[in-house]
Amino acid sequence: MMDAVRTKWMGLLIPIISILLAFLAGAVIMVLSGNNPITGYAALVSGIFGTPYDFGETLQRMTPLIFSGLAVAFAFRAGLLNIGVEGQLIVGWFTAVIAGIVVDLPTLIHIPFAIAAGALAGALWGAVPGFLKARFEVHEVIVTIMMNYIAMHVTNSLIRTYFLESGQRTAIVNESASLESTFLSELTNFSRLHWGFFIAAAACVVMWFILWKMKRGFELRSVGYNKNASMYAGMSVKGNIVLSMTISGAFAGAGGAMVGLGTYGYANILPAFTNIGFDGIAVALLGASTSIGIFLAAFLFGGLQQGANMMQATAGVSPELVEIVIALIIFFVASGYVIRWAIDRIASRKGEK
Amino acid sequence: MDYVIEMNNIRKEFPGIVANDNITLQVKQGEIHALLGENGAGKSTLMNVLFGLYQPERGEIKVRGEQVEINDPNKANDLGIGMVHQHFMLVQNFTVTENIILGSEPTRRGAVNLKKAEKDVQEISDRYGLRVDPKAKIEDISVGMQQRVEILKTLYRGAEILIFDEPTASLTPQEIKELINIMHNLINEGKSIILITHKLKEILQVCDRCTVIRRGQGIGTVDVEGATESSLAEMMVGREVNFSVEKTPASPKDVVLDVQDLVVEDARKYDIVDHLNLQVRAGEIVGLAGVDGNGQTELIEALTGLRPVKSGKISISGSETSKYKPRKVTEAGVGHIPQDRHKHGLVLDFTIGENILLQTYYQKPFSNKGILNYNKMYEKAKELIEEYDVRTPHEKTPARSLSGGNQQKAIIAREIDRSPDLLIAAQPTRGLDVGAIEFIHSKLVEERDKGRAVLLVSLELDEVLNVSDKIAVIYEGKIVEVVEADQTDEQELGLLMAGGQKEAGEATT
Ligand SMILES: Nc1ncnc2c1ncn2[C@@H]1O[C@H](COP(=O)(O)OP(=O)(O)OP(=O)(O)O)[C@@H](O)[C@H]1O
Ligand SMILES: [Mg+2]
């Protein structure tokens, strides 16, 4: 019975221990660099929860992270490493914004239309590596990395040549396509929190539903675990590879739409990657590729990014430290095996006594 | 000190199940000690405890009279205990030597000394008659050879006590003979062996003593001398076991499977199935006998849509299926018990229930408009788990944590329950205990009597002879002879399988 309880909590215990260890290591680094870790972390926490504004910004930051986390996790469930979430997100952002600018529709139609346009662009961007993998066995990691660069440069050049409005960006999307919410913004002391947060939460439910309730999800997971057995059971391995990359890309593209229609209201020429897509890998890893896990992990990473500002402002800790903590969390989660082993050790030692 | 190994009153629990409950095993120096028990009785678990992979909740372990605590396999190695697992743990694109030294590389000034290692490996190989090429790549060598590499690995690390977990389950009869020779060599060199096997003949042939466990309980230890197959079986199952298959003469009807002039290529583009003709009728069991590697695997894969047909024709119940994908073949009325259960048969990370529904999840009532009804799925799974006596704590237990034999029973339940027109059973009883084998064989006969066609592919002649009505002998990709099962014997089959001709005198009878 001990064992049953142990396995059940292990999945939760490892991320939590990883996070604690990472914060502990962060504290050591703060001490070594001459800062007080207590004031440092106090600043971090108040940077997340301190004011309604900070909290609103945290939720705003976590919105696209949820999507990029879901995108990585969805492909991962089918046994694929989608490193191209970044690119899929960029094309989704761009396409959603353009759909928000060039057409005029009633709000209730325009918003879904613009989000769908973004998701579709991301889906196409994800389908290409999926197809190349299924048809020619080209490794998806290589193709998706290349497509990240293509995404960034192509959208940049499209903005530059066709849609440049002021400075480095496009026009603002029509009111009817905007996810901005005066209500949410006022509620949170004029943060940039927008309706997209709720859409992201709904997306978590969507992924859970597809993977665990739908026939397709059963097949996707099966292919992810064992291609031979899936083929034996009459599933289309190639079809499912393409499908999983397509849906993964759609999640990423929708995440881009949140940024474009909600946070900024425009698309701009990107000097570098947004990193939201790459952070999605960490979010999915920490969240163990589950919907709830991703939601919580996105909150953590969004909060860390937001709280980093306050750390610098009030405690004088450089924001790079937060990045180190994030990196350490990833490191410790990735070495979860070692932690599991250590827990087992301690538990069995206790059992004997 | 009499015993090299003493495991006293061992208890090991898993979530929802007591795998070992108060088991005692005592192994004498220089003996081959059999460990016998039904599928899921707890044999592998007990050996994993001895090898330091699991920690027991209770009980003590003594090695050469000294009480020890074995917390990990390295400790087991240090104590001279080596284990050859049922599923090998070799790196496919490494050479034999690289695999053997992995983790204990001999170094000279920090660099791995491969030359010396190769020499050492060669030396051990020669001493025990393992005939292993130290420079060969794992992916290029046979299953039997891979197993000998595993044996070598334990010897290289200085093992004095060797544990074999079902070593003969995946071997050909020839390879089994070689393995038995090797075991004798090991004993002559002063080693001790613990052998897990479901084949009672092997126990009688090579073992000195035998410990029996049943559902996690130790039943006792007996001397093999004086024991018989049925006495061992009874001790293990707790009732009398019927070794011969009970069946009435077959009454074959229409042709269900019709294979004409079939050519199939293997991975190296060689015509491994070479203009093969074969028919199986409704209401009969046709056994396919042959030495491993004569095209059986590729034939089955072609029949089930897993491998493309180069030329020729396959028809099932009158419709041509040569170009069908696996799903369409299944829907044409084919059930397939695959020979490699971990490769094709199971998604190990799915629950056992999901695995039982692997062929039917997309049909009503399990799936409706793309949505799965998990309640219905698990209801069905539960039914089959009971009917086929799959021993698992729960239908939602991951397939990975079932014992090998119970995994196999789940596959068989899935494939037979649909009562397909044509059932292709490849090594269906591999890794099953005698009681389960009896049950599966009677199921196959039951299907036959329902008017289904059964193609039984097995490397074990006993099984082919006992269960089949007709026996088709495959040699170099062709069916060289079809004989009535009750008019032939092991000797004649052996001759045919080696490419010999049927004697003229017998052919007329
Ligand atoms: N890692 C595990 N986690 C949970 N349960 C397990 C695990 N390993 C084994 N079990 C359970 O313990 C019991 C004993 O399993 P074990 O593998 O020892 O059987 P076995 O005697 O080797 O059977 P077989 O002849 O089929 O190989 C089974 O009921 C199995 O489901
Ligand atoms: Mg076993």
UniProtKB/TrEMBL annotation, chain A:
Its main location: membrane. The keyword Lipid biosynthesis does not apply. GO terms for cellular component: plasma membrane. CDD domains: TM_PBP1_transp_TpRbsC_like. It is a multi-pass membrane protein. The keyword Transmembrane helix applies. The chain crosses the membrane at residues 12-32, 62-83, 89-106, 113-132, 138-159, 193-212, 241-264, 276-301, 321-343. Keywords: Cell membrane, Membrane, Transmembrane, Transmembrane helix. InterPro entries: ABC_transp_permease. It is found in: Cell membrane. Pfam families: BPD_transp_2. One of its GO terms (molecular function) is transmembrane transporter activity. PANTHER family: ABC TRANSPORTER, PERMEASE PROTEIN (PTHR47089), GUANOSINE ABC TRANSPORTER PERMEASE PROTEIN NUPP (PTHR47089:SF1). This is Branched-chain amino acid ABC transporter permease.
TrEMBL record, chain B:
It is found in: Cell membrane. It comes from Alkalicoccus urumqiensis. It comes from the Bacteria. The keyword Transport applies. The lineage of its organism: Bacteria, Bacillati, Bacillota, Bacilli, Bacillales. Residues 5-240, 257-501 form the ABC transporter domain. It is a peripheral membrane protein. This is Heme ABC transporter ATP-binding protein. GO terms for molecular function: ATP binding; ATP hydrolysis activity.
